[in-house]
């Protein structure tokens, strides 16, 4: 931000804390003891970057210092709050500023393999005493404990590669077909996968989720490999009841044909028309063909106009 746009508060705090002894004294008085032990204050260096948006510029000033923390790059971020009215959501804003600093650092150092430590401080000089909590989790109200157990905690990661197919089939009544498909979509040939999922497809259809089956099959045909088309047809023929067979077999033929002319827009349009004939709606056709909803709507209009 240009200097002539800085508020008087911003200019003042930057000027005073640009003096190393003043800055070091301030931080040694107010930082936690374990942080002080980790910081090499001889490396303290004020930065020109600001992370406060323009709308808050006359109410808030900030100052960023780079510093070594246990030998690694780190930062001390000082926010100067001089708004006349205390801001309840100040802890949330501090989180946003901290993440912006980390993002800024990673952009400047694209080969960096770890996140820099950012130590935030707030110097409040408002007209009224600041009476709100500075604990971010207090902002979640009655969900504070749930927030603590989920927000900024290690993320839950479901690695399908580490879960057996049998477990995926037994653990999920609804999601099992999607889990197996996502896990095996890059297999050399998906014929055996489809064979193992016929019972899941029939269950989903019995539950009224025909769209689930159609989108799953279209995904398999579009993103996976079906090497033996004849074996694939035989599996569907033998595994489906007569009521289900016609619609799914027609769908299979559509996508097998699509695979032979992949990349041609006309083939996608023809596929969309055939899916409409199967009773799929516009959103389902867009999902199945990877065409945009607008493209699908245009195809539908052209087809209905002709008739």
List the topology elements.
Elements: H1 8-17, H2 20-30, H3 33-38, E1 39-46, E2 60-69, E3 72-81, H4 90-108, E4 117-124, H5 144-150, H6 165-171, H7 176-184, H8 191-206, H9 210-223, H10 229-239, H11 242-260, H12 265-277, H13 282-289, H14 293-306
Helix pairs in contact: 6-7, 7-8, 8-9, 8-10, 9-11, 9-13, 10-11, 11-12, 12-13, 12-14, 13-14
Tell me about this structure.
The protein is of the alpha+beta class and 307 residues long. The protein has two domains: 3-150, no CATH class; 160-306, no CATH class. Helix content is 53%, strand content 12%. The protein has 14 helices and four strands. It has helices at residues 8-17, 20-30, 33-38, 90-108, 144-150, 165-171, 176-184, 191-206, 210-223, 229-239, 242-260, 265-277, 282-289, 293-306; strands at residues 39-46, 60-69, 72-81, 117-124. It has a four-stranded mixed sheet, sandwiched between helices. Helix 4 (90-108) links the parallel strand 3 (72-81) and strand 4 (117-124). Helix 6 runs antiparallel to helix 7 and helix 9 (210-223) packs parallel to helix 13 (282-289). The longest helix is centred in the N-terminal third of the chain and has 19 residues, at 90-108. The chain is elongated, with a radius of gyration of 30 Å.
